[in-house]
Amino acid sequence: DASVVMRVRVAPLGAAHVLLLAEDHTHARRVEEVRRDFVANVSHELKTPVGGISLLAEAVLDAKDDPEAVTRFARRISIEATRLGRLVQEIVDLSRLQVADTLHEPDLVEVDAVLHEAHDRVRVAADARQIDVQVAAQRGLRVFGDLELLVTAVANLLANAVNYSEAGTRVGVGARQVGDAVEIAVTDQGQGIPVGEQERIFERFYRVDAARSRATGGTGLGLAIVKHICANHGGEVTVWSEEGRGSTFTMRLPVAVDQTADDLAADPEP
Ligand code: ADP
Protein backbone atom coordinates (compact mmCIF):
# COMPACT_ATOMS: atom_id res chain seq x y z
CA ASP A 1 0.00 0.00 0.00
CA ALA A 2 1.47 3.34 -1.09
CA SER A 3 0.44 5.27 2.04
CA VAL A 4 2.31 2.79 4.27
CA VAL A 5 5.41 3.16 2.14
CA MET A 6 5.07 6.91 2.42
CA ARG A 7 4.80 6.94 6.22
CA VAL A 8 7.86 4.75 6.56
CA ARG A 9 9.90 6.92 4.22
CA VAL A 10 8.72 10.20 5.70
CA ALA A 11 10.22 9.77 9.17
CA PRO A 12 13.84 10.83 8.54
CA LEU A 13 12.95 13.66 6.15
CA GLY A 14 12.21 17.38 6.60
CA ALA A 15 8.84 19.13 6.19
CA ALA A 16 9.46 20.02 2.55
CA HIS A 17 10.09 16.40 1.71
CA VAL A 18 6.96 15.30 3.52
CA LEU A 19 4.97 17.79 1.47
CA LEU A 20 6.55 16.61 -1.77
CA LEU A 21 5.88 12.98 -0.97
CA ALA A 22 2.29 13.75 -0.02
CA GLU A 23 1.81 15.62 -3.30
CA ASP A 24 3.37 12.72 -5.19
CA HIS A 25 1.01 10.38 -3.45
CA THR A 26 -2.11 12.44 -4.29
CA HIS A 27 -0.93 12.76 -7.87
CA ALA A 28 -0.29 9.01 -8.11
CA ARG A 29 -3.74 8.28 -6.74
CA ARG A 30 -5.37 10.66 -9.22
CA VAL A 31 -3.45 9.11 -12.12
CA GLU A 32 -4.60 5.68 -10.95
CA GLU A 33 -8.24 6.84 -10.73
CA VAL A 34 -8.10 8.35 -14.19
CA ARG A 35 -6.56 5.13 -15.52
CA ARG A 36 -9.24 2.97 -13.92
CA ASP A 37 -12.09 5.15 -15.26
CA PHE A 38 -10.50 5.07 -18.68
CA VAL A 39 -10.27 1.28 -18.71
CA ALA A 40 -13.92 0.98 -17.59
CA ASN A 41 -15.08 3.43 -20.28
CA VAL A 42 -12.98 1.78 -22.95
CA SER A 43 -14.32 -1.70 -22.31
CA HIS A 44 -17.86 -0.37 -22.38
CA GLU A 45 -17.27 1.50 -25.65
CA LEU A 46 -15.57 -1.48 -27.29
CA LYS A 47 -18.42 -3.81 -26.42
CA THR A 48 -20.88 -1.90 -28.61
CA PRO A 49 -19.20 -2.45 -32.00
CA VAL A 50 -17.93 -5.91 -31.04
CA GLY A 51 -21.46 -6.96 -30.03
CA GLY A 52 -22.82 -5.48 -33.24
CA ILE A 53 -20.32 -7.37 -35.37
CA SER A 54 -21.12 -10.71 -33.65
CA LEU A 55 -24.85 -10.25 -34.15
CA LEU A 56 -24.38 -9.29 -37.79
CA ALA A 57 -22.10 -12.28 -38.39
CA GLU A 58 -24.82 -14.57 -37.00
CA ALA A 59 -27.34 -12.84 -39.25
CA VAL A 60 -25.09 -13.58 -42.25
CA LEU A 61 -24.99 -17.27 -41.33
CA ASP A 62 -28.78 -17.40 -40.94
CA ALA A 63 -29.34 -15.59 -44.24
CA LYS A 64 -26.97 -17.64 -46.38
CA ASP A 65 -29.74 -18.53 -48.87
CA ASP A 66 -30.59 -14.86 -49.39
CA PRO A 67 -27.64 -13.24 -51.20
CA GLU A 68 -29.14 -9.76 -50.94
CA ALA A 69 -29.44 -9.98 -47.17
CA VAL A 70 -25.92 -11.38 -46.93
CA THR A 71 -24.57 -8.37 -48.85
CA ARG A 72 -26.52 -5.98 -46.64
CA PHE A 73 -25.25 -7.52 -43.40
CA ALA A 74 -21.70 -7.81 -44.72
CA ARG A 75 -21.71 -4.10 -45.58
CA ARG A 76 -22.79 -3.27 -42.05
CA ILE A 77 -20.09 -5.52 -40.62
CA SER A 78 -17.57 -3.59 -42.67
CA ILE A 79 -18.88 -0.23 -41.34
CA GLU A 80 -18.79 -1.45 -37.74
CA ALA A 81 -15.29 -2.88 -38.19
CA THR A 82 -14.03 0.45 -39.58
CA ARG A 83 -15.52 2.25 -36.60
CA LEU A 84 -13.94 -0.24 -34.22
CA GLY A 85 -10.57 0.28 -35.90
CA ARG A 86 -10.86 4.05 -35.52
CA LEU A 87 -11.91 3.70 -31.90
CA VAL A 88 -8.89 1.53 -31.09
CA GLN A 89 -6.57 3.99 -32.88
CA GLU A 90 -8.02 6.96 -30.97
CA ILE A 91 -7.77 5.13 -27.65
CA VAL A 92 -4.08 4.49 -28.35
CA ASP A 93 -3.53 8.12 -29.43
CA LEU A 94 -5.25 9.46 -26.34
CA SER A 95 -3.34 7.24 -23.91
CA ARG A 96 -0.06 8.33 -25.50
CA LEU A 97 -1.08 11.98 -25.13
CA GLN A 98 -2.10 11.47 -21.52
CA VAL A 99 1.23 9.90 -20.63
CA ALA A 100 3.37 12.65 -22.18
CA ASP A 101 2.66 16.05 -20.61
CA THR A 102 4.77 17.97 -23.09
CA LEU A 103 6.39 17.43 -26.46
CA HIS A 104 9.94 16.14 -26.59
CA GLU A 105 11.36 17.77 -29.67
CA PRO A 106 9.01 20.42 -30.99
CA ASP A 107 9.47 21.64 -34.57
CA LEU A 108 8.70 25.04 -35.99
CA VAL A 109 5.30 24.46 -37.63
CA GLU A 110 3.59 26.67 -40.22
CA VAL A 111 0.00 27.18 -39.11
CA ASP A 112 -1.13 27.73 -42.70
CA ALA A 113 0.07 24.23 -43.61
CA VAL A 114 -1.75 22.76 -40.61
CA LEU A 115 -5.06 24.29 -41.70
CA HIS A 116 -4.75 23.15 -45.33
CA GLU A 117 -3.71 19.61 -44.38
CA ALA A 118 -6.62 19.38 -41.89
CA HIS A 119 -8.99 20.66 -44.58
CA ASP A 120 -7.77 17.93 -46.97
CA ARG A 121 -8.62 15.28 -44.39
CA VAL A 122 -12.28 16.31 -44.11
CA ARG A 123 -12.82 17.24 -47.75
CA VAL A 124 -14.61 14.02 -48.72
CA ALA A 125 -16.94 14.12 -45.70
CA ALA A 126 -17.70 17.82 -46.27
CA ASP A 127 -18.44 17.27 -49.99
CA ALA A 128 -20.68 14.32 -49.17
CA ARG A 129 -22.72 16.56 -46.87
CA GLN A 130 -22.58 19.55 -49.24
CA ILE A 131 -20.84 21.69 -46.69
CA ASP A 132 -18.57 24.43 -47.94
CA VAL A 133 -15.35 24.67 -45.90
CA GLN A 134 -13.44 27.96 -46.11
CA VAL A 135 -9.84 28.30 -44.96
CA ALA A 136 -8.34 31.69 -44.05
CA ALA A 137 -4.98 31.90 -42.32
CA GLN A 138 -2.90 34.97 -41.63
CA ARG A 139 0.43 34.50 -43.47
CA GLY A 140 3.64 33.50 -41.72
CA LEU A 141 2.17 32.33 -38.42
CA ARG A 142 4.19 29.64 -36.70
CA VAL A 143 4.03 27.64 -33.50
CA PHE A 144 6.42 25.18 -31.90
CA GLY A 145 4.99 21.71 -31.93
CA ASP A 146 4.24 18.52 -33.77
CA LEU A 147 2.74 18.97 -37.24
CA GLU A 148 0.91 15.63 -37.22
CA LEU A 149 -0.71 16.26 -33.82
CA LEU A 150 -1.74 19.80 -34.74
CA VAL A 151 -3.31 18.57 -37.98
CA THR A 152 -5.17 15.88 -36.02
CA ALA A 153 -6.53 18.50 -33.60
CA VAL A 154 -7.78 20.87 -36.31
CA ALA A 155 -9.14 17.97 -38.40
CA ASN A 156 -11.09 16.70 -35.37
CA LEU A 157 -12.69 20.13 -34.92
CA LEU A 158 -13.47 20.35 -38.63
CA ALA A 159 -14.95 16.84 -38.69
CA ASN A 160 -17.27 17.78 -35.84
CA ALA A 161 -18.23 21.06 -37.52
CA VAL A 162 -19.17 19.08 -40.63
CA ASN A 163 -20.92 16.26 -38.76
CA TYR A 164 -23.07 18.46 -36.55
CA SER A 165 -24.23 20.82 -39.32
CA GLU A 166 -26.93 20.61 -41.97
CA ALA A 167 -26.31 20.34 -45.70
CA GLY A 168 -25.77 23.64 -47.46
CA THR A 169 -24.30 25.44 -44.44
CA ARG A 170 -20.79 26.84 -44.17
CA VAL A 171 -17.81 25.92 -42.03
CA GLY A 172 -14.81 28.19 -41.61
CA VAL A 173 -11.34 27.67 -40.22
CA GLY A 174 -9.04 30.61 -39.64
CA ALA A 175 -5.87 31.53 -37.80
CA ARG A 176 -4.59 34.87 -36.52
CA GLN A 177 -2.21 36.23 -33.97
CA VAL A 178 -3.69 37.79 -30.84
CA GLY A 179 -1.01 39.10 -28.47
CA ASP A 180 1.53 36.33 -28.06
CA ALA A 181 -0.93 33.59 -29.00
CA VAL A 182 -2.00 32.04 -32.27
CA GLU A 183 -5.74 31.52 -32.34
CA ILE A 184 -7.08 28.82 -34.62
CA ALA A 185 -10.87 29.02 -34.80
CA VAL A 186 -13.28 26.55 -36.38
CA THR A 187 -16.78 27.94 -36.86
CA ASP A 188 -19.97 26.23 -37.99
CA GLN A 189 -23.63 27.14 -38.46
CA GLY A 190 -24.80 23.85 -37.01
CA GLN A 191 -27.05 22.71 -34.21
CA GLY A 192 -24.93 24.22 -31.43
CA ILE A 193 -24.29 22.89 -27.93
CA PRO A 194 -26.45 23.63 -24.85
CA VAL A 195 -24.57 25.85 -22.35
CA GLY A 196 -24.78 23.22 -19.62
CA GLU A 197 -22.96 20.68 -21.79
CA GLN A 198 -20.20 22.92 -23.12
CA GLU A 199 -17.65 21.95 -20.50
CA ARG A 200 -18.44 18.25 -20.50
CA ILE A 201 -18.00 17.68 -24.23
CA PHE A 202 -14.21 17.70 -23.72
CA GLU A 203 -14.46 14.62 -21.48
CA ARG A 204 -13.68 11.24 -22.95
CA PHE A 205 -16.74 9.53 -24.43
CA TYR A 206 -19.10 12.34 -23.45
CA ARG A 207 -21.69 13.06 -26.15
CA VAL A 208 -24.63 15.44 -26.15
CA ASP A 209 -26.59 13.15 -28.43
CA ALA A 210 -25.15 9.62 -28.46
CA ALA A 211 -27.36 8.48 -31.33
CA ARG A 212 -26.25 11.33 -33.60
CA SER A 213 -22.61 10.82 -32.66
CA ARG A 214 -22.82 7.10 -33.50
CA ALA A 215 -24.70 7.77 -36.74
CA THR A 216 -21.84 9.99 -37.93
CA GLY A 217 -19.26 7.39 -36.89
CA GLY A 218 -18.13 9.42 -33.88
CA THR A 219 -16.07 7.79 -31.14
CA GLY A 220 -16.67 10.38 -28.42
CA LEU A 221 -12.90 10.90 -28.14
CA GLY A 222 -12.34 13.65 -30.71
CA LEU A 223 -12.50 16.64 -28.36
CA ALA A 224 -10.63 14.90 -25.53
CA ILE A 225 -7.81 14.38 -28.04
CA VAL A 226 -7.95 18.05 -29.11
CA LYS A 227 -7.79 19.14 -25.48
CA HIS A 228 -4.72 17.01 -24.76
CA ILE A 229 -2.94 18.10 -27.94
CA CYS A 230 -3.49 21.77 -27.00
CA ALA A 231 -2.26 21.16 -23.44
CA ASN A 232 0.85 19.38 -24.72
CA HIS A 233 1.56 22.45 -26.84
CA GLY A 234 1.23 24.79 -23.85
CA GLY A 235 -2.17 26.01 -25.04
CA GLU A 236 -5.87 25.44 -24.55
CA VAL A 237 -9.12 24.93 -26.44
CA THR A 238 -12.40 26.71 -25.67
CA VAL A 239 -15.89 26.70 -27.13
CA TRP A 240 -18.48 29.34 -27.80
CA SER A 241 -21.85 28.08 -28.93
CA GLU A 242 -25.48 29.02 -29.19
CA GLU A 243 -28.11 26.36 -29.75
CA GLY A 244 -29.58 26.52 -33.22
CA ARG A 245 -26.98 29.08 -34.40
CA GLY A 246 -23.70 27.25 -34.37
CA SER A 247 -20.42 26.80 -32.58
CA THR A 248 -16.88 28.16 -32.60
CA PHE A 249 -14.02 26.14 -31.17
CA THR A 250 -10.83 28.12 -30.56
CA MET A 251 -7.37 26.63 -30.03
CA ARG A 252 -4.95 29.10 -28.43
CA LEU A 253 -1.26 28.23 -28.76
CA PRO A 254 1.87 30.22 -27.90
CA VAL A 255 3.18 31.93 -31.03
CA ALA A 256 6.70 30.91 -32.05
CA VAL A 257 8.91 33.95 -32.18
CA ASP A 258 12.00 33.54 -34.32
CA GLN A 259 14.76 35.94 -35.33
CA THR A 260 12.88 37.24 -38.37
CA ALA A 261 9.79 37.97 -36.30
CA ASP A 262 11.97 39.82 -33.76
CA ASP A 263 13.41 41.93 -36.56
CA LEU A 264 9.94 42.70 -37.85
CA ALA A 265 8.79 43.67 -34.37
CA ALA A 266 11.68 46.14 -34.14
CA ASP A 267 10.47 47.72 -37.39
CA PRO A 268 8.17 50.70 -36.65
CA GLU A 269 5.83 49.72 -39.48
CA PRO A 270 2.65 47.86 -38.30
P1 ADP B 1 -17.88 12.56 -31.23
O1 ADP B 1 -17.11 11.45 -31.80
O2 ADP B 1 -19.13 12.11 -30.53
O3 ADP B 1 -18.12 13.67 -32.20
P2 ADP B 1 -16.27 14.49 -29.75
O4 ADP B 1 -15.42 14.32 -28.53
O5 ADP B 1 -15.59 15.00 -30.97
O6 ADP B 1 -16.95 13.10 -30.01
O7 ADP B 1 -17.46 15.46 -29.39
C1 ADP B 1 -18.24 15.22 -28.22
C2 ADP B 1 -19.66 15.71 -28.40
O8 ADP B 1 -19.67 17.14 -28.47
C3 ADP B 1 -20.33 15.24 -29.67
O9 ADP B 1 -20.92 13.97 -29.53
C4 ADP B 1 -21.40 16.33 -29.89
O10 ADP B 1 -22.52 16.07 -29.07
C5 ADP B 1 -20.71 17.58 -29.34
N1 ADP B 1 -20.08 18.41 -30.40
C6 ADP B 1 -18.77 18.44 -30.74
N2 ADP B 1 -18.55 19.34 -31.72
C7 ADP B 1 -19.75 19.90 -32.03
C8 ADP B 1 -20.18 20.90 -32.96
N3 ADP B 1 -19.32 21.52 -33.78
N4 ADP B 1 -21.50 21.20 -32.97
C9 ADP B 1 -22.38 20.60 -32.14
N5 ADP B 1 -22.03 19.65 -31.25
C10 ADP B 1 -20.74 19.30 -31.17
From TrEMBL:
Protein's name according to its UniProt entry: Sensor-like histidine kinase SenX3
Domain of life: Bacteria
Catalytic activity: ATP + protein L-histidine = ADP + protein N-phospho-L-histidine
Residues of the full protein shown: 143 to 412 of 424
Source organism of this protein record: Phycicoccus duodecadis
UniProtKB keywords: ATP-binding, Cell membrane, Kinase, Membrane, Nucleotide-binding, Phosphoprotein, Transferase, Transmembrane, Transmembrane helix, Two-component regulatory system
Entry GO CC: plasma membrane
Enzyme nomenclature, EC number: 2.7.13.3
Subcellular location(s) of the protein: Cell membrane
Main location class: membrane
Origin organism lineage: Bacteria, Bacillati, Actinomycetota, Actinomycetes, Micrococcales
Gene Ontology BP annotations: cellular response to phosphate starvation
Stretches assigned to the Histidine kinase domain: 41-257
A GO MF term: phosphoprotein phosphatase activity
